[in-house]
Automatic annotation (TrEMBL), chain B:
Cell location: Cell membrane
Protein name (record): Candidate chromate transport protein, half length
Organism of provenance: Ramlibacter tataouinensis (strain ATCC BAA-407 / DSM 14655 / LMG 21543 / TTB310)
Classification via PANTHER family: CHROMATE TRANSPORT PROTEIN-RELATED, CHROMATE TRANSPORTER
Annotated keywords: Cell membrane, Membrane, Transmembrane, Transmembrane helix
Highest taxon of source: Bacteria
Taxonomic lineage: Bacteria, Pseudomonadati, Pseudomonadota, Betaproteobacteria, Burkholderiales
């Protein structure tokens, strides 16, 4: 699934580029940054392929800590080692933190404003669509999957039902369905 | 209220501990933060807690910033602006240090050993589950107000957004702006 990197593949030019890129995508991420990370890093900047994004996201998701923070750390670390990881982290947190603090300071004045509450509700509905669409877009990463599309669909469908409809704890779903998926893939990959 | 140095240490230590438990994101430990900060220690009021979470969700940036606001408010109650700054730094550092260190080490190890069959099986095997989780998260966010039929304008906005983002390359900020305008005028 992971193809060798072409020599002319785009990547961050410097730590400054990395910092500014992550600051910019964090500032676009209302209601969560993931959809923006996928759009910016996979589709626009092309620093990673869809397959790579899904693989990194699996690690970011399974480790403790905020998932997008983990993901940014891993991407920064991939290009510039520990300094890259720290710079990506700073990009995600520094400027957005200022914005959140500023918002908290003015919040008291507008909290009861019904139109402000309405705007937040509308943005929340859009944010939900952004996340769902990110999932659908990454779907094409499964076309080359070693298990084949039908098995992937069955596993994914079961995970969706377990989380979205039955609201089972994430840890159990990852352990049982994720474990099953990894074991099946392990068998399919075969010894090399 | 937060008093001497020992309390700050306990405060910092609690976030360090929660960091290691925060599989699936810091928000999954929010119920325990509420138990500790509001019910057990009385460092925050209920409205302070809820509004900290809501503001961070509405603001741009990663949702984990709600932890910074919690620290800010706890510190503000203990020692004014200086306390607020200290609370913010301790809470955010506490919730991030253990998890980011662990993730960095694990990811580096995984990348060095990426040709191992077990590593490839893990990363590729998780792909269908991870993708399904994203769609499920969208579903959960969209139905956070319940399944009442009166919610249909919100669902329509979510569905339209899903299709537009999936199929086109419209800038995401335009869509958020449209959502905000629809909400502002009470249309959703």
């Amino acid at each position: 699934m992971t193809s060798p990197l072409p020599a002319d593949r785009p990547q961050p030019r410097s730590l400054t580029d990395l910092f500014l890129s992550f600051t910019w995508l964090a500032l676009q991420g209302f209601g969560g940054v993931l959809a923006v990370v996928q759009r910016e890093l996979v589709e626009r900047k092309r620093w990673m392929t869809r397959e790579e994004f899904v693989e990194e996201w699996a690690v970011a998701q399974i480790m403790p800590g905020p998932n997008v923070i983990n993901l940014s750390l891993m991407i920064g670390g991939r290009y510039f080692g520990l300094p890259g990881a720290l710079v990506a982290l700073a990009g995600m947190l520094l400027v957005p933190l200022m914005v959140v603090l500023a918002l908290a300071l003015v919040y008291a004045r507008f909290a009861d404003h019904p139109q402000v509450a309405g705007a937040l509700r509308g943005m929340g509905a859009v944010a939900a669509g952004l996340v769902a669409a990110t999932g659908l877009k990454l779907f094409s990463a499964l076309l080359k999957h070693p298990l084949g599309l039908p098995v992937c669909m069955a596993l994914g469908g079961a995970a969706f039902v377990a989380i979205a409809l039955l609201r089972l704890p994430l840890a159990w779903v990852l352990l049982v369905l994720g474990g099953l998926a990894c074991a099946l893939t392990w068998r399919k990959l075969g010894p090399r | 209220m937060v008093g001497g140095g020992l309390d700050w240490l306990a405060f910092f230590g609690h976030f360090l501990m929660l960091s290691l438990l925060s599989i699936g994101g810091a928000i999954t430990t929010a119920p325990d933060m509420h138990r500790y900060l509001v019910q057990e220690q009385g460092w925050l009021t209920d409205p302070q807690f809820t509004s900290s979470v809501a503001i961070a969700q509405a603001a741009p940036g990663p949702n984990v910033l709600f932890v910074a606001l919690l620290g800010w408010n706890v510190g503000m109650g203990a020692g004014g602006w200086a306390g607020a700054g200290a609370g913010l730094v301790l809470a955010l550092a506490g919730i991030l240090l253990p998890s980011t260190t662990l993730t960095y080490l694990a990811a580096s190890w995984g990348h060095r050993n990426r040709e191992l069959r077990a590593v490839r099986a893990f990363k590729q095997g998780m792909a269908p589950i991870v993708i399904a989780l994203l769609v499920a998260t969208g579903w959960i966010l969209a139905t956070s107000g319940g399944y009442r039929l009166s919610q249909w304008p919100l669902w329509a906005v979510t569905l339209a957004t899903t299709l537009i983002v999936w199929r086109t390359r419209v800038h995401l900020l335009w869509l958020l702006g449209i959502g905000a305008v629809l909400g502002w005028f009470g249309l959703v």
